[in-house]
Design brief:
The complex is a heterodimer. By secondary structure, chain A is mostly helical. Chain A is built from 3 helices and no strands. Chain B folds into 2 domains: 33-61 and 302-413, Aspartate Aminotransferase, domain 1 (Alpha-Beta Complex); 66-299, Type I PLP-dependent aspartate aminotransferase-like (Major domain) (Aspartate Aminotransferase, domain 2, 3-Layer(aba) Sandwich), CATH 3.40.640.10. A 7-stranded mixed sheet of chain B has the order 4-10-9-8-7-5-6, with helices on both faces. The chains are: A mainly alpha, B alpha/beta.
Protein backbone atom coordinates (compact mmCIF):
# COMPACT_ATOMS: atom_id res chain seq x y z
CA UNK A 1 0.00 0.00 0.00
CA UNK A 2 2.70 2.48 1.01
CA UNK A 3 4.84 1.45 -1.92
CA UNK A 4 1.94 2.10 -4.28
CA UNK A 5 1.38 5.50 -2.64
CA UNK A 6 4.96 6.45 -3.39
CA UNK A 7 4.76 5.24 -6.99
CA UNK A 8 1.61 7.29 -7.60
CA UNK A 9 2.99 10.35 -5.78
CA UNK A 10 6.19 10.23 -7.83
CA UNK A 11 4.22 9.89 -11.07
CA UNK A 12 1.97 12.85 -10.24
CA UNK A 13 4.95 15.04 -9.30
CA UNK A 14 6.85 14.18 -12.49
CA UNK A 15 3.81 14.46 -14.69
CA UNK A 16 2.01 17.52 -13.47
CA UNK A 17 4.17 19.79 -11.34
CA UNK A 18 5.92 22.51 -13.31
CA UNK A 19 7.45 24.21 -10.30
CA UNK A 20 10.04 22.04 -8.57
CA UNK A 21 9.58 23.88 -5.27
CA UNK A 22 5.91 22.95 -5.05
CA UNK A 23 5.17 20.43 -2.28
CA UNK A 24 2.79 17.57 -2.87
CA UNK A 25 1.57 15.16 -0.18
CA UNK A 26 -0.62 12.06 -0.25
CA UNK A 27 -3.58 14.25 0.68
CA UNK A 28 -3.05 17.26 -1.63
CA UNK A 29 -6.26 17.85 -3.63
CA UNK A 30 -5.26 17.13 -7.22
CA UNK A 31 -8.36 17.84 -9.31
CA UNK A 32 -10.17 20.31 -7.02
CA UNK A 33 -6.77 21.91 -6.28
CA UNK A 34 -6.20 22.57 -9.99
CA UNK A 35 -3.03 20.44 -10.22
CA UNK A 36 -4.55 17.82 -12.54
CA UNK A 37 -7.21 18.88 -15.06
CA UNK A 38 -9.87 16.58 -16.42
CA UNK A 39 -7.94 16.19 -19.71
CA UNK A 40 -4.85 15.05 -17.86
CA UNK A 41 -6.74 12.42 -15.86
CA UNK A 42 -6.63 10.29 -19.00
CA UNK A 43 -2.91 9.66 -18.79
CA UNK A 44 -3.08 9.08 -15.04
CA UNK A 45 -5.79 6.47 -15.53
CA UNK A 46 -3.84 4.77 -18.32
CA UNK A 47 -0.67 4.80 -16.24
CA UNK A 48 -2.45 3.07 -13.34
CA UNK A 49 -4.08 0.51 -15.63
CA UNK A 50 -0.79 -0.37 -17.33
CA UNK A 51 1.26 -0.39 -14.15
CA UNK A 52 -1.13 -2.52 -12.08
CA UNK A 53 -2.66 -4.55 -14.93
CA UNK A 54 -6.18 -3.49 -14.08
CA UNK A 55 -9.07 -1.89 -15.93
CA UNK A 56 -10.86 1.03 -14.28
CA UNK A 57 -14.33 1.58 -15.76
CA UNK A 58 -14.98 5.18 -16.88
CA UNK A 59 -17.85 5.58 -14.39
CA UNK A 60 -15.45 4.81 -11.53
CA UNK A 61 -12.71 7.15 -12.80
CA UNK A 62 -14.42 10.25 -11.44
CA UNK A 63 -12.72 13.51 -10.47
CA UNK A 64 -13.63 12.73 -6.85
CA UNK A 65 -11.97 9.30 -6.97
CA UNK A 66 -8.82 10.85 -8.44
CA UNK A 67 -8.64 13.82 -6.10
CA UNK A 68 -5.66 12.74 -3.98
CA UNK A 69 -2.93 10.11 -4.00
CA UNK A 70 -4.61 8.36 -1.07
CA UNK A 71 -7.95 8.21 -2.92
CA UNK A 72 -6.28 6.97 -6.10
CA UNK A 73 -4.54 4.17 -4.23
CA UNK A 74 -7.84 3.20 -2.62
CA UNK A 75 -9.46 3.04 -6.05
CA UNK A 76 -6.66 0.96 -7.55
CA UNK A 77 -6.87 -1.48 -4.64
CA UNK A 78 -10.58 -2.02 -5.30
CA UNK A 79 -9.72 -3.41 -8.70
CA UNK A 80 -6.66 -5.35 -7.60
CA UNK A 81 -8.78 -7.58 -5.38
CA UNK B 1 -39.60 40.65 -23.09
CA UNK B 2 -37.18 37.80 -23.40
CA UNK B 3 -34.15 39.82 -22.36
CA UNK B 4 -35.25 40.66 -18.83
CA UNK B 5 -33.40 42.76 -16.25
CA UNK B 6 -32.45 39.54 -14.51
CA UNK B 7 -30.71 38.24 -17.64
CA UNK B 8 -29.05 41.60 -18.29
CA UNK B 9 -27.75 41.76 -14.71
CA UNK B 10 -26.15 38.34 -15.00
CA UNK B 11 -24.09 39.58 -17.95
CA UNK B 12 -23.27 43.03 -16.59
CA UNK B 13 -21.98 41.52 -13.35
CA UNK B 14 -19.88 38.99 -15.29
CA UNK B 15 -18.40 41.81 -17.39
CA UNK B 16 -17.76 43.81 -14.20
CA UNK B 17 -15.88 40.84 -12.77
CA UNK B 18 -13.68 40.78 -15.87
CA UNK B 19 -12.94 44.48 -15.35
CA UNK B 20 -12.19 43.98 -11.65
CA UNK B 21 -9.73 41.21 -12.45
CA UNK B 22 -7.91 43.65 -14.74
CA UNK B 23 -8.27 41.38 -17.78
CA UNK B 24 -10.81 43.46 -19.70
CA UNK B 25 -9.72 43.67 -23.32
CA UNK B 26 -10.12 46.93 -25.16
CA UNK B 27 -9.66 47.55 -28.88
CA UNK B 28 -7.50 50.36 -30.18
CA UNK B 29 -8.78 51.85 -33.42
CA UNK B 30 -6.26 52.08 -36.26
CA UNK B 31 -7.07 54.67 -38.93
CA UNK B 32 -4.41 53.63 -41.45
CA UNK B 33 -3.52 50.43 -43.29
CA UNK B 34 -1.42 47.81 -41.50
CA UNK B 35 2.28 48.77 -41.60
CA UNK B 36 5.28 49.69 -39.45
CA UNK B 37 3.90 53.24 -39.11
CA UNK B 38 0.25 53.40 -38.09
CA UNK B 39 -2.20 56.04 -36.85
CA UNK B 40 -4.10 55.07 -33.74
CA UNK B 41 -7.10 56.43 -31.87
CA UNK B 42 -6.58 55.44 -28.25
CA UNK B 43 -8.25 55.93 -25.86
CA UNK B 44 -11.45 56.05 -27.92
CA UNK B 45 -12.27 59.63 -28.95
CA UNK B 46 -8.74 60.95 -28.54
CA UNK B 47 -6.71 62.58 -31.31
CA UNK B 48 -4.89 60.28 -33.73
CA UNK B 49 -1.36 59.37 -32.73
CA UNK B 50 1.38 58.21 -35.08
CA UNK B 51 3.12 55.19 -33.60
CA UNK B 52 5.45 52.38 -34.64
CA UNK B 53 3.69 49.04 -34.63
CA UNK B 54 5.71 46.40 -32.79
CA UNK B 55 2.97 43.81 -32.29
CA UNK B 56 1.53 42.83 -35.67
CA UNK B 57 1.75 39.34 -37.18
CA UNK B 58 2.71 41.14 -40.40
CA UNK B 59 6.11 39.38 -40.35
CA UNK B 60 6.94 39.90 -44.02
CA UNK B 61 5.39 43.35 -44.37
CA UNK B 62 3.05 42.06 -47.09
CA UNK B 63 -0.25 43.20 -45.55
CA UNK B 64 -0.22 46.40 -47.58
CA UNK B 65 2.27 45.46 -50.31
CA UNK B 66 1.40 47.16 -53.65
CA UNK B 67 1.61 43.92 -55.68
CA UNK B 68 -0.72 42.16 -53.25
CA UNK B 69 -3.21 45.04 -53.33
CA UNK B 70 -3.07 45.06 -57.15
CA UNK B 71 -3.71 41.30 -57.27
CA UNK B 72 -6.64 41.70 -54.86
CA UNK B 73 -8.12 44.38 -57.14
CA UNK B 74 -7.77 42.06 -60.12
CA UNK B 75 -9.45 39.27 -58.17
CA UNK B 76 -12.29 41.60 -57.30
CA UNK B 77 -12.66 42.75 -60.93
CA UNK B 78 -12.50 39.32 -62.55
CA UNK B 79 -14.01 36.95 -59.93
CA UNK B 80 -16.33 39.25 -57.98
CA UNK B 81 -16.76 40.15 -54.33
CA UNK B 82 -18.29 37.02 -52.81
CA UNK B 83 -19.36 33.50 -53.74
CA UNK B 84 -22.43 33.14 -51.50
CA UNK B 85 -21.67 29.47 -51.06
CA UNK B 86 -19.66 26.85 -49.25
CA UNK B 87 -16.93 25.20 -51.30
CA UNK B 88 -18.71 22.01 -52.36
CA UNK B 89 -21.96 23.57 -53.59
CA UNK B 90 -20.86 26.43 -55.85
CA UNK B 91 -18.03 28.12 -53.97
CA UNK B 92 -14.94 26.71 -55.71
CA UNK B 93 -13.37 28.86 -58.40
CA UNK B 94 -10.30 28.11 -60.50
CA UNK B 95 -8.31 30.47 -58.27
CA UNK B 96 -9.20 28.46 -55.14
CA UNK B 97 -7.72 25.34 -56.76
CA UNK B 98 -4.73 27.38 -57.96
CA UNK B 99 -4.10 28.48 -54.35
CA UNK B 100 -4.38 24.90 -53.05
CA UNK B 101 -1.79 23.78 -55.63
CA UNK B 102 0.54 26.66 -54.76
CA UNK B 103 0.34 26.02 -51.01
CA UNK B 104 1.05 22.30 -51.59
CA UNK B 105 4.13 23.18 -53.60
CA UNK B 106 5.29 25.87 -51.16
CA UNK B 107 4.99 23.64 -48.08
CA UNK B 108 6.27 20.52 -49.86
CA UNK B 109 3.23 18.38 -49.05
CA UNK B 110 0.92 16.08 -51.05
CA UNK B 111 -2.31 18.08 -51.07
CA UNK B 112 -4.06 21.10 -49.48
CA UNK B 113 -7.58 22.13 -48.54
CA UNK B 114 -8.52 25.74 -47.78
CA UNK B 115 -10.52 26.73 -44.68
CA UNK B 116 -12.10 30.09 -43.79
CA UNK B 117 -9.36 30.48 -41.14
CA UNK B 118 -6.65 28.43 -39.44
CA UNK B 119 -8.83 28.46 -36.34
CA UNK B 120 -11.39 26.59 -38.47
CA UNK B 121 -8.74 24.26 -39.88
CA UNK B 122 -7.63 23.35 -36.35
CA UNK B 123 -11.22 23.07 -35.15
CA UNK B 124 -12.15 20.68 -37.96
CA UNK B 125 -9.18 18.48 -38.74
CA UNK B 126 -9.02 16.13 -35.74
CA UNK B 127 -12.70 15.26 -35.77
CA UNK B 128 -12.44 14.53 -39.50
CA UNK B 129 -9.55 12.09 -39.31
CA UNK B 130 -9.79 10.39 -35.89
CA UNK B 131 -12.14 8.02 -34.05
CA UNK B 132 -12.57 6.94 -30.43
CA UNK B 133 -9.94 4.23 -30.97
CA UNK B 134 -7.21 6.83 -31.53
CA UNK B 135 -5.13 9.16 -29.36
CA UNK B 136 -3.94 12.76 -29.71
CA UNK B 137 -0.76 13.66 -27.82
CA UNK B 138 -0.22 17.40 -27.72
CA UNK B 139 2.48 19.75 -26.45
CA UNK B 140 1.15 21.56 -23.36
CA UNK B 141 1.64 24.99 -24.94
CA UNK B 142 -0.22 24.51 -28.23
CA UNK B 143 -2.48 27.30 -29.46
CA UNK B 144 -6.04 27.66 -28.11
CA UNK B 145 -7.56 26.82 -31.50
CA UNK B 146 -5.86 23.40 -31.42
CA UNK B 147 -7.22 22.77 -27.95
CA UNK B 148 -10.71 23.55 -29.24
CA UNK B 149 -10.20 21.12 -32.14
CA UNK B 150 -9.01 18.44 -29.73
CA UNK B 151 -12.12 18.96 -27.59
CA UNK B 152 -14.34 18.39 -30.61
CA UNK B 153 -12.67 15.11 -31.60
CA UNK B 154 -13.80 11.70 -30.31
CA UNK B 155 -10.25 10.42 -29.77
CA UNK B 156 -8.49 10.18 -26.41
CA UNK B 157 -6.30 13.17 -25.51
CA UNK B 158 -3.04 13.31 -23.61
CA UNK B 159 -0.28 15.90 -23.30
CA UNK B 160 3.48 16.08 -22.97
CA UNK B 161 5.53 18.76 -21.24
CA UNK B 162 6.51 21.63 -23.49
CA UNK B 163 9.21 20.49 -25.95
CA UNK B 164 10.16 17.59 -23.64
CA UNK B 165 11.07 14.75 -26.00
CA UNK B 166 11.64 12.17 -23.24
CA UNK B 167 8.14 12.86 -21.93
CA UNK B 168 6.70 12.61 -25.43
CA UNK B 169 8.38 9.23 -25.86
CA UNK B 170 6.88 8.01 -22.57
CA UNK B 171 3.45 9.01 -23.84
CA UNK B 172 3.96 7.28 -27.19
CA UNK B 173 4.83 4.11 -25.26
CA UNK B 174 1.87 4.52 -22.91
CA UNK B 175 -0.54 4.73 -25.84
CA UNK B 176 1.15 2.11 -28.04
CA UNK B 177 -2.05 0.05 -28.24
CA UNK B 178 -4.12 2.77 -29.90
CA UNK B 179 -5.22 2.36 -33.54
CA UNK B 180 -3.80 5.73 -34.60
CA UNK B 181 -1.58 8.19 -32.73
CA UNK B 182 -1.16 11.85 -33.64
CA UNK B 183 1.51 14.01 -32.05
CA UNK B 184 0.42 17.66 -32.06
CA UNK B 185 2.58 20.77 -31.82
CA UNK B 186 2.96 24.37 -32.94
CA UNK B 187 5.94 24.99 -35.25
CA UNK B 188 6.72 28.33 -33.62
CA UNK B 189 5.06 28.89 -30.25
CA UNK B 190 3.30 32.22 -30.45
CA UNK B 191 3.81 33.43 -26.88
CA UNK B 192 7.43 32.38 -26.32
CA UNK B 193 8.76 32.49 -29.89
CA UNK B 194 10.59 29.16 -29.58
CA UNK B 195 10.44 26.39 -32.19
CA UNK B 196 9.37 22.75 -31.90
CA UNK B 197 12.21 20.22 -32.30
CA UNK B 198 10.69 18.79 -35.42
CA UNK B 199 13.69 16.63 -36.37
CA UNK B 200 13.47 14.77 -33.05
CA UNK B 201 9.70 14.63 -33.23
CA UNK B 202 9.77 13.11 -36.72
CA UNK B 203 12.24 10.47 -35.49
CA UNK B 204 10.02 9.59 -32.53
CA UNK B 205 6.91 9.46 -34.70
CA UNK B 206 8.66 7.12 -37.13
CA UNK B 207 9.84 4.93 -34.26
CA UNK B 208 6.36 4.62 -32.72
CA UNK B 209 4.30 4.74 -35.92
CA UNK B 210 2.57 8.01 -35.08
CA UNK B 211 1.46 10.86 -37.32
CA UNK B 212 2.83 14.36 -36.75
CA UNK B 213 0.68 17.51 -36.83
CA UNK B 214 2.29 20.97 -36.90
CA UNK B 215 0.55 24.36 -36.79
CA UNK B 216 2.75 26.66 -38.85
CA UNK B 217 0.77 29.87 -38.45
CA UNK B 218 3.72 31.76 -36.95
CA UNK B 219 6.26 30.20 -39.33
CA UNK B 220 4.93 29.96 -42.90
CA UNK B 221 6.72 32.39 -45.19
CA UNK B 222 9.79 33.16 -43.09
CA UNK B 223 11.15 30.30 -40.94
CA UNK B 224 13.74 28.14 -42.73
CA UNK B 225 16.22 29.12 -45.42
CA UNK B 226 13.55 29.79 -48.06
CA UNK B 227 10.71 30.56 -45.65
CA UNK B 228 8.81 27.29 -46.04
CA UNK B 229 8.47 26.86 -42.30
CA UNK B 230 9.77 25.08 -39.22
CA UNK B 231 9.98 21.79 -41.14
CA UNK B 232 12.46 23.40 -43.51
CA UNK B 233 14.52 24.77 -40.60
CA UNK B 234 14.83 21.27 -39.12
CA UNK B 235 15.39 19.48 -42.44
CA UNK B 236 12.18 17.43 -42.36
CA UNK B 237 10.21 18.77 -45.32
CA UNK B 238 8.00 16.03 -46.75
CA UNK B 239 7.88 14.25 -43.39
CA UNK B 240 5.12 16.21 -41.66
CA UNK B 241 1.78 14.42 -42.06
CA UNK B 242 -0.49 17.38 -41.30
CA UNK B 243 0.39 21.07 -41.47
CA UNK B 244 -2.14 23.77 -40.69
CA UNK B 245 -1.36 27.38 -41.40
CA UNK B 246 -2.93 30.79 -41.86
CA UNK B 247 -2.98 33.43 -44.57
CA UNK B 248 -3.82 35.95 -41.85
CA UNK B 249 -0.27 36.59 -40.67
CA UNK B 250 2.88 36.64 -42.83
CA UNK B 251 1.10 35.51 -46.00
CA UNK B 252 -0.71 38.79 -46.64
CA UNK B 253 -2.53 39.05 -43.34
CA UNK B 254 -6.11 39.10 -44.67
CA UNK B 255 -7.80 35.85 -43.64
CA UNK B 256 -8.08 32.18 -44.48
CA UNK B 257 -6.15 29.07 -43.58
CA UNK B 258 -5.60 25.51 -44.68
CA UNK B 259 -4.82 21.90 -43.88
CA UNK B 260 -1.92 20.64 -45.99
CA UNK B 261 -0.39 17.18 -45.85
CA UNK B 262 -0.99 13.54 -46.76
CA UNK B 263 -3.52 13.35 -49.55
CA UNK B 264 -5.82 10.88 -47.77
CA UNK B 265 -6.00 13.15 -44.70
CA UNK B 266 -6.80 16.17 -46.87
CA UNK B 267 -9.50 14.13 -48.63
CA UNK B 268 -10.99 13.16 -45.24
CA UNK B 269 -11.21 16.87 -44.41
CA UNK B 270 -12.92 17.54 -47.74
CA UNK B 271 -15.50 14.87 -46.93
CA UNK B 272 -15.97 15.41 -43.21
CA UNK B 273 -14.49 18.62 -41.71
CA UNK B 274 -17.41 20.66 -40.45
CA UNK B 275 -15.91 24.16 -40.79
CA UNK B 276 -15.15 23.30 -44.43
CA UNK B 277 -18.60 21.86 -45.09
CA UNK B 278 -20.66 24.45 -43.24
CA UNK B 279 -18.79 27.73 -43.63
CA UNK B 280 -18.37 30.04 -46.59
CA UNK B 281 -15.57 29.78 -49.11
CA UNK B 282 -12.69 32.29 -48.89
CA UNK B 283 -13.57 35.48 -50.81
CA UNK B 284 -12.02 35.73 -54.32
CA UNK B 285 -10.32 39.01 -53.46
CA UNK B 286 -8.39 37.30 -50.63
CA UNK B 287 -7.57 34.20 -52.71
CA UNK B 288 -6.08 36.38 -55.46
CA UNK B 289 -3.99 38.26 -52.91
CA UNK B 290 -2.57 35.09 -51.35
CA UNK B 291 -1.78 33.61 -54.78
CA UNK B 292 0.40 36.65 -55.45
CA UNK B 293 1.98 36.49 -51.98
CA UNK B 294 3.14 32.93 -52.73
CA UNK B 295 4.48 34.04 -56.12
CA UNK B 296 6.50 36.79 -54.44
CA UNK B 297 7.90 34.40 -51.83
CA UNK B 298 8.71 31.67 -54.35
CA UNK B 299 10.74 34.09 -56.48
CA UNK B 300 12.89 35.63 -53.77
CA UNK B 301 13.91 35.22 -50.14
CA UNK B 302 14.65 38.94 -49.84
CA UNK B 303 11.85 39.66 -47.38
CA UNK B 304 12.53 36.76 -44.99
CA UNK B 305 16.26 37.60 -45.15
CA UNK B 306 15.49 41.19 -44.15
CA UNK B 307 13.24 39.95 -41.36
CA UNK B 308 16.07 37.76 -40.08
CA UNK B 309 18.47 40.72 -40.02
CA UNK B 310 15.89 42.95 -38.32
CA UNK B 311 15.27 40.26 -35.71
CA UNK B 312 19.00 39.91 -34.98
CA UNK B 313 19.30 43.70 -34.60
CA UNK B 314 16.30 43.85 -32.25
CA UNK B 315 17.31 40.91 -30.04
CA UNK B 316 20.89 42.16 -29.79
CA UNK B 317 19.76 45.71 -28.92
CA UNK B 318 17.38 44.59 -26.19
CA UNK B 319 19.87 42.12 -24.73
CA UNK B 320 22.66 44.70 -24.61
CA UNK B 321 20.28 47.18 -22.98
CA UNK B 322 19.79 44.67 -20.14
CA UNK B 323 16.26 43.33 -20.72
CA UNK B 324 15.33 39.75 -19.85
CA UNK B 325 14.22 38.03 -23.07
CA UNK B 326 12.90 34.57 -23.83
CA UNK B 327 15.56 32.65 -25.76
CA UNK B 328 14.94 32.04 -29.43
CA UNK B 329 15.71 33.16 -32.94
CA UNK B 330 12.26 33.91 -34.33
CA UNK B 331 10.72 37.38 -34.90
CA UNK B 332 8.59 36.86 -31.78
CA UNK B 333 10.69 38.50 -29.06
CA UNK B 334 9.07 38.49 -25.60
CA UNK B 335 10.45 41.09 -23.18
CA UNK B 336 9.88 39.52 -19.77
CA UNK B 337 8.40 41.65 -16.99
CA UNK B 338 6.79 38.84 -14.89
CA UNK B 339 4.31 41.12 -13.09
CA UNK B 340 0.91 41.68 -14.78
CA UNK B 341 0.47 45.29 -13.71
CA UNK B 342 4.02 46.16 -14.69
CA UNK B 343 3.35 44.77 -18.18
CA UNK B 344 0.32 47.04 -18.52
CA UNK B 345 2.11 50.13 -17.16
CA UNK B 346 5.11 49.43 -19.37
CA UNK B 347 2.91 49.14 -22.46
CA UNK B 348 1.19 52.46 -21.63
CA UNK B 349 4.53 54.21 -21.15
CA UNK B 350 5.77 52.85 -24.48
CA UNK B 351 2.66 54.16 -26.18
CA UNK B 352 3.37 57.62 -24.81
CA UNK B 353 6.79 57.32 -26.48
CA UNK B 354 5.15 56.42 -29.81
CA UNK B 355 5.59 52.65 -29.62
CA UNK B 356 2.65 50.28 -29.94
CA UNK B 357 3.36 47.01 -28.08
CA UNK B 358 0.95 45.08 -25.91
CA UNK B 359 1.46 43.54 -22.46
CA UNK B 360 0.38 39.91 -22.04
CA UNK B 361 -0.42 38.32 -18.69
CA UNK B 362 -2.35 35.42 -17.16
CA UNK B 363 -4.39 33.63 -18.52
CA UNK B 364 -2.87 34.32 -21.97
CA UNK B 365 0.54 33.36 -20.57
CA UNK B 366 1.24 31.37 -17.35
CA UNK B 367 0.90 33.10 -13.98
CA UNK B 368 3.98 35.18 -13.15
CA UNK B 369 5.15 35.22 -16.77
CA UNK B 370 3.78 38.64 -17.85
CA UNK B 371 5.60 40.23 -20.75
CA UNK B 372 5.57 42.65 -23.65
CA UNK B 373 5.49 40.52 -26.78
CA UNK B 374 7.29 42.30 -29.60
CA UNK B 375 7.02 41.07 -33.17
CA UNK B 376 9.48 42.12 -35.83
CA UNK B 377 8.58 42.65 -39.48
CA UNK B 378 10.36 42.96 -42.79
CA UNK B 379 8.25 46.12 -43.04
CA UNK B 380 10.38 47.66 -40.29
CA UNK B 381 13.38 49.73 -41.34
CA UNK B 382 16.37 50.06 -39.01
CA UNK B 383 15.26 53.58 -38.08
CA UNK B 384 11.97 52.14 -36.75
CA UNK B 385 13.83 49.64 -34.62
CA UNK B 386 16.30 52.26 -33.38
CA UNK B 387 13.45 54.49 -32.29
CA UNK B 388 11.64 51.59 -30.64
CA UNK B 389 14.82 50.54 -28.85
CA UNK B 390 15.35 54.08 -27.59
CA UNK B 391 11.82 54.09 -26.19
CA UNK B 392 12.22 50.66 -24.58
CA UNK B 393 15.43 51.80 -22.89
CA UNK B 394 13.82 55.04 -21.67
CA UNK B 395 10.84 53.18 -20.23
CA UNK B 396 13.09 50.42 -18.89
CA UNK B 397 15.07 53.05 -16.97
CA UNK B 398 11.88 54.65 -15.69
CA UNK B 399 10.79 51.34 -14.15
CA UNK B 400 14.37 50.51 -13.14
CA UNK B 401 14.49 47.03 -14.66
CA UNK B 402 17.51 47.33 -16.98
CA UNK B 403 20.28 44.89 -16.09
CA UNK B 404 18.04 43.30 -13.45
CA UNK B 405 17.56 39.55 -13.24
CA UNK B 406 14.19 37.79 -13.15
CA UNK B 407 14.48 37.45 -9.36
CA UNK B 408 15.31 41.14 -8.93
CA UNK B 409 12.36 42.27 -11.07
CA UNK B 410 10.03 39.95 -9.13
CA UNK B 411 11.45 41.21 -5.80
CA UNK B 412 10.71 44.78 -6.88
CA UNK B 413 7.27 44.34 -8.47
CA UNK B 414 5.98 40.96 -7.27
CA UNK B 415 5.00 38.02 -9.42
Amino acid sequence: MDEMKDVVLKYVINEYLEDEDEVLTYETPLISGGIVDSFSMVSLKRFLENKYKISIPDDKATPEAFDSVTKIVKLVNEFLK
Amino acid sequence: MAYSDKIRNIYTSTIDEIREKGIFKQERYIHSSQAADIEVEFPTGSALKKVINMCANNYLGLSSHPDVIKAAHEGLDTRGYGMSSVRFICGTQDIHKELERKVTEFLGTEDTILFPSCMDANAGVFEAILTKDDVMISDRLVHASIIDGIRLAPAMHDTFKHSDMAHLEEKLQLHADKRLKVVITDGVFSMDGDTAKLDEMVALCEKYDAMLFVDESHSSGFIGKTGRGTHEKYGVMGKIDIITTTFGKALGGASGGCVSGRKELVEMCRQKARPYLFSNTIAPVVVSGVNTVLDILSKSTERRDKLEKNTEFWRKGLTEAGFVLKDGDTPIVPVMLFNAKLSQDFSKALYEEGIYAIGFFFPVVPQGQARIRTQISAGHEIHHLEKALEAFIKVGKKFDILGKTKQEIIAKYGQ
